[in-house]
Amino acid sequence: MTATIIVLAKAPVAGRVKTRLCPPATPREAADLAAAALLDTLDATAAVPDARTLVAFTGRLTDAARAGALRASLGRARTTVQRGDGLGARIVAAHEDAADRWPGAPTLQLGMDTPQVDAALLSGCLLRLADADAVLGPAPDGGWWALGLRDPRAAAAIGDVPTSRADTGERTLYALRAAGLRVGLLPELTDVDTADDAVAVAADAPGSRFAAAVEQVFAGASR
């Protein structure tokens, strides 16, 4: 069965994304980095065999960095509008939208902060759902970068989990298990929040748009 890869994305508008990169980045440079990360992510999801991409999007694309390239990339995917009060509710709604459109299809959800992902990694994440009800990819900061569900509606279990905390990943794992789900753990990945994160992630994604953008903005930031 064709799986659905959900990308939770926000229009990369200067001053509204990746503000923790400023300084040393300017708001415009931070938005460009976010746009590069999203484009790399969408390239990776599009290359996964037997999977479709659903982008849960919010914001004005007309105001975004790399708007033309993003418009073309989004045009090759399916899209839905983010809805809900708070990140947890928006995550649940995105999975519900996928379940409504493609009943019975498993989901794998990620954001636009891990441009080092590739098709092989994402395919492996989906394969883990063959012997688990859910899979969760931890991040070093205590959060998580990916959530896979055999039944997308099971995302309701994490709707009230506080986000952007050092224990978000732990709480998410507990909530999934408390709902009776068998949970497998995915490889840990760093998501991009700080300048040091950006440099580290770029090193793991040589040749990517993101790595090229980081080279322009953060050359020497790790020294």
SSE map:
Layout: E1 3-10, H1 27-46, E2 51-58, H2 67-75, E3 78-81, H3 87-101, E4 107-110, H4 119-127, E5 134-138, E6 144-149, H5 168-178, E7 183-185, H6 195-203, H7 209-218
Parallel strand pairs: 1-2, 1-4, 2-3, 5-7
Antiparallel strand pairs: 4-6, 5-6
Describe this structure in words.
- The protein is α/β, with parallel strands linked by helices and 223 residues long.
- It has a single domain, classed as Spore Coat Polysaccharide Biosynthesis Protein SpsA, Chain A, CATH 3.90.550.10.
- The chain contains seven helices and seven strands, in the order E-H-E-H-E-H-E-H-E-E-H-E-H-H.
- Helix 1 packs parallel to helix 2, helix 1 packs antiparallel against helix 7 (209-218) and helix 6 packs across helix 7 (209-218).
- It is globular and about 45 Å long.
- The mean pLDDT is 95.
Number of contiguous helices:
7
- Average pLDDT, rounded to a whole number, is 95
The CATH architecture category equals Alpha-Beta Complex
Task: Supply the helix-strand structural class.
Answer: alpha/beta
Oligomeric description of these chains: single chain
Pfam families: DUF2064
Protein name: Glycosyltransferase involved in cell wall biogenesis
Organism: Pseudonocardia dioxanivorans (strain ATCC 55486 / DSM 44775 / JCM 13855 / CB1190)
Characterize this entry briefly.
This is Glycosyltransferase involved in cell wall biogenesis. The chain has helices at 27-46, 67-75, 87-101, 119-127, 168-178, 195-203, 209-218, and strands at 3-10, 51-58, 78-81, 107-110, 134-138, 144-149, 183-185.
